[in-house]
Amino acid sequence: MPGRSTSSSGSTGFISFSGVESALSSLKNFQSCISSGMDTASTVALNLVETQTEVSSEYSMDKAMVEFAMMDRELNHYLKAVQSTIKHVREERPEKIPDLKLLVEKKFLALQNKNSDADFQNNEKFAQFKQQLKELKKQSVKPKEDGGHNDFDQIKDKDASRAGNERDGLQADREADGTEGVDEDMIVTQSQTNFICPITQLEMKKPVKNKVCGHTYEEEAIVRMIESKHKRKKKACCPKIGCSHTDVRMSDLIQDEALRRAIESHNKKKHRQSN
Description:
Layout: E1 4-6, E2 12-15, H1 18-50, H2 55-92, H3 100-112, H4 124-139, H5 151-177, H6 190-193, E3 207-210, E4 216-218, H7 219-231, E5 253-255, H8 257-274
Antiparallel strand pairs: 1-2, 3-4, 3-5
């Protein structure tokens, strides 16, 4: 057989795995296809929530994400089984040619038998999808029995009322101490504050979340900060005041799609109100 050197007794001098490794490379490329599919399903699901499309459509995307995650897990197990078999044969150097297919199947089944639903939480894209979906649902506008107001609107109303009371109190104080001209725009709601990047102090356009501490930043700003620190052989601390995370890495950052949509929605409403 090509790639194998054998004696008349059936022993093997060496086994070339170049063909197998080439096939493994192709399988790894297929993983990128699964990843792209998960990105697409995630985007569609978030769009459905944002546009308040019927729950059955959202459920279909959730089901698709589960299937993608299962394919990814199965492919990872197969790759591990093949790689483990190659390593075993190279280290053991058996006298007779082993049944590689059987060895791979045994290792693959052993990995598959350990499957559990908890595995999905280890799939970064799946876990990120569930989190983003949860956050967007909190922020999405859904009609309620109180005349079309939702929880987000009620919070804004309360903030506006509180801000109004604070302004009345501040106005009286300013008239008394001569500081009436102080900028009242400093009073902002909590939701708007969360839209501000702790680095640029500007509203974020492309927010990314730190998986370790949960804080968000403008992508370009945090990447530039990390690169600058690393060039000087230093660790990048989370720029959020009070955060104890002292080693922010590029691999810690994920796109915060839910926050990006919330910011866009807020700006659209503000634009409509100003017209």
